[in-house]
Description:
With 794 residues, the chain is an alpha/beta fold. It is 42% helix and 20% strand.
Amino acid sequence: MSELSKLPTLALRDTVLFPGVTTPLRVGRAESLRAVELALASNQEVFAVLQTGNEDTIDTKKLHNIGTVAKIGQVNRTDGSVQLLVQGQRRANAVRYDLVDGSVQATVQEVVEIDLSANSTLLEALQKEVTERATELATRIGVPGGVFNQALAQVNDPGRFADLVSSFLDVEAEEKQDLLKTLDTEERLRKLLVMMQRQIAVLEAQNDIRTHVQQELGDRQREMVLREQLKAIQKELGDEPAAEDLQTLAERIKALELPPEVRKEVDRELQRLESMNAESMEAQVLRTYLETIVELPWNERSDAKLDLEAAERILDEDHYGLQDVKDRVLEYLAVLQLHEQKATDDAAQRRAPILLFDGPPGVGKTSIARAIAHATGREYVRISLGGARDEADIRGHRRTYVGALPGRIIQGMRQAGTKNPVFLLDEVDKLGQSLQGDPASALLEVLDPAQNDAFVDNYLGVPFDLSEVLFVATANYAQAIPAPLLDRMERIEFSGYTEAEKREIARRYLRPRQQLESGLETEQLTVEDGALEKVISHYTHEAGVRQLEKELGKLCRKVARSVAVDPATTASIDAERVGELLGRPRVHPERALLTDQIGVATGMYYTPVGGDIMFVETTTMAGNGHLVLTGQLGDVMRESAQAAWSYARSHSAELLIDEPMFDRDLHIHVPAGAIPKDGPSAGITLATALISALCGVPARNDIAMTGEVTLTGRVLPIGGVKEKVLGAVRAGIREIILPAPNMVDLEDLTPEVRDVLTVHPVEHLDEVLELSLRGGVFRSSRIFIEGEEPPRMR
């Protein structure tokens, strides 16, 4: 234990003096000045200790116990204060403070630092880590790293090293006091390391903030300078910006006839814009919003032509056939004309319908919508919804997002410039879904006549009236449209064209158009009807005429090449020259069988590109009575085959099928095995082929059939009758079997097709077998084979 001694006390505010560190101090308080005088009069030592608080008077109760005995080295007197250079000598503990002769006297006792670490390697590692952190910290605050390292290298004692580094830290005085009173060297080094790491993190954060702010200010200042320079250049060139000034925009907004709720919102946003800096980003966003409001057709309307005779003439000129569609459009125009004659103001009575054109590709769905706009004198707008997966495509983005835009509906209305255009929603069945929402659900409000008079786009945020828009949607597969959306539309089916209709369309529209696009004059090319028929039957296989137009374009380009070499060349293309110009046929449609065959029946099926015929082949072989199905058949067709097998077994006596036949394996195959097939309409075809193979009676080759069959033999109706019948006619078949309820569907066929057809309506499988099996006879509700003795009733 060291001896007690009395020393003048120098109370420090916001400063802690460490042993071995020389620090300049400014002394101005009376008590401190008196302590300096006493020290200079004796051995020049003072007790420097931290004072809690920042009061001008010294309160001994607010002085810490642990301080540093310091020696005064240099004194510089000024008016009312003294500048000192003091050097810390050693730590000391103040046992008692006394006020003597106007100064504070401390009875101090020197304290000895302790080293509880038995591992000198640990102290060395801590000292090295502190050195690295201290060097990094010095570099960040602007002290040269070399100078700092040189100063630290001169201190070997870990305790003195810690005190030296502690003096450089920019931390609170109380934290430095905590380091001063920590006598364990290892603990002091650890505390010091934590403080330095925290200070380095603070400096890094400050540097990042400073860099970001400077960059942002620099970008804004650069943008402002560039804008001013651009204005000066435009002024010198006499090329003033086309954008309206704020006053002009306000006048345009004032001139709009807006609904009250829209007027309130727009005026509020205009007042916000007027109070903003015109160069700010928010002002630019708000200005774009108001310009969008101004450009929308709030009250502009097209003068719709309501001359029904002229509209009918335009529709007939643009399209061949499609009589159902034309009739529906003319009915709508007639209703509008009657409402206009009555001068009704009832919005519910003037609502436009929502039409859905459903049919295979290339049948004229899009072009008929354009013709409707031409016939009615309305603006025409088309948007493609194929592949749209974001709800914002329909409703738009909210203005808070960067790059926000109105939805496609509002953009289309701005493009149209009127509030009663013909608006085509193309490929509505190909809408997708994603994490951004379901656009089909967003269309529910748009395509509901009871709701779309107040459609709210997310970008606009105010209602917009869509009730006068004639929406026309197109789809290839109506089954792919969600039921709630499909329920809001009036479905008009587009069926495939017959070969005669295709020939007429090619003669009237397609060939002249392709001839004009190829640069040929009318007299330079002649295409005979036989050539058109060969192109249709051997080079295209579709319900529409899109591929047909492409093939005719190839013909025209072949002739155009010859005309380019010799302008005097003229060409007349017949059926024989088609093969020379277009190459070998690429379409090989099925044709009717030439002879009757046992176990082979002819069915009719529907595809999106039109109808066709298919053959169901059945054969028996030795086995265990298994039923084998091949040809990529779906579950429904497999079930139909199983039902036909069960019907044959339950009626084997009436059908004259020997019981041992059911012990043989039965193989049913539908050709074109690479194409998946499914559906109930092949039921009677499967049953005919199966029973033909079991009873050994050939099926007729000149008859085709379609219909669903039940386990009891009832024949149920199916769909796609028109396409299926046209496919059978193209294959050379003139006699068909249809379910009796489907006879009404024959009205969709043209008279020239109905005139060459023999149609047999059936209600039961027995009737089908009588017609389809060669020699079948129907008696007393049973089917027998001609020439055989009728079996007894069981």
